[in-house]
Design a protein that fits this description.
Layout (H helix, E strand, L loop, with lengths): L7 E5 L4 H12 L3 E6 L2 H13 L3 E6 L5 H15 L4 E4 L15 H22 L7 E6 L12 H21 L4 E7 L6 H9 L15 H11 L11 E3 L3 H7 L3
Parallel strand pairs: 1-2, 1-4, 2-3, 4-5, 5-6, 6-7
């Protein structure tokens, strides 16, 4: 895990679930971590805990759907650590879960603003500071290629970020930018509780024990941040696949 030590990571959606687990693991492995989320108190608490346990982290309140917020978060990270090596675009929302005919346009817009524009704003803001290369990982989803009832906004947004990452790889690999997408499968997070409560489509019928731990996702992200995952540049890494789980050491 030496490739993580002393590197600077920005993780969006860091207040819970995948984001929190990732922040904690990268900090434990010696990275400087910038936790970004709307929930100021939650990320402050996580950051304080990380720092009390010997890690290095800062908490930055930020709405990723606001470009000024994102640019300010990048500036604050650079002020603390003077570099940005890894960006993980994890922030994402799915609610409300509704069919197209019932959904308000404003609700569709909000998901697009967070799940697509928020990722694009982050990429746009960090690229000038990755002159010596860097890694940009976006959290994708199997919903990018599988239509699901009530998820039109979410499926659309995830399909978009899969293509956005592929475009980033096409344009920036020559500049040593590593662009990848992680499709983690269903993860035991607050989002799954929202999905469960909706009662819409087969995913809501799954048992809690069917979902993987956020810690698995964090470990996969550590692996994806290394050259061991270079064969997947510009592609989607699916944590559902047995061969990926073997590479990470889960099997």
């Amino acid at each position: 895990m030496e490739h993580i030590k002393n590197k600077t990571l920005i993780i969006t959606g860091a207040s819970q679930g995948i984001g929190e687990a990732t922040a904690r693991l990268f900090a434990k492995l010696g990275a400087n971590v910038a936790l970004i989320a709307r929930s100021k108190e939650k990320i402050k608490k996580i950051s304080n805990d990380i720092n009390l346990n010997g890690g290095k982290s800062i908490a930055i309140q930020c709405d990723v759907s606001n470009q000024d917020d994102v640019e300010n978060a990048i500036k604050l990270t650079l002020k603390s650590y003077n570099a940005i090596d890894i960006l993980i675009g994890n922030a994402g929302i799915i609610n409300p879960i509704q069919n197209i005919a019932e959904m308000d346009i404003s609700d569709f817009d909000k998901v697009i603003d967070v799940n697509i524009k928020g990722v694009w704003y982050g990429i746009k803001a960090v690229l000038p500071h990755m002159k010596n290369g860097g890694t940009i990982i976006t959290i994708g989803s199997g919903a990018a290629s599988n239509a699901l009832e009530g998820w039109s906004h979410y499926c659309t947004s995830k399909a978009a970020v899969h293509h956005l990452s592929a475009c980033l790889d096409l344009e920036m690999r020559k500049d040593l930018i590593r662009a990848l997408v992680l499709s983690p499968g269903t993860v035991a997070t607050e989002m799954q509780k929202i999905i469960k409560k909706s009662g819409v489509n087969p995913v809501s019928k799954m048992n809690w024990s069917d979902h993987i731990s956020p810690d698995w996702v964090a470990k996969c992200l550590v692996w994806m941040s290394s050259s061991q995952a270079d064969e997947y540049l510009g592609k989607v890494v699916s944590l559902r696949e047995e061969k990926i789980r073997q590479k990470i050491g889960f099997l």
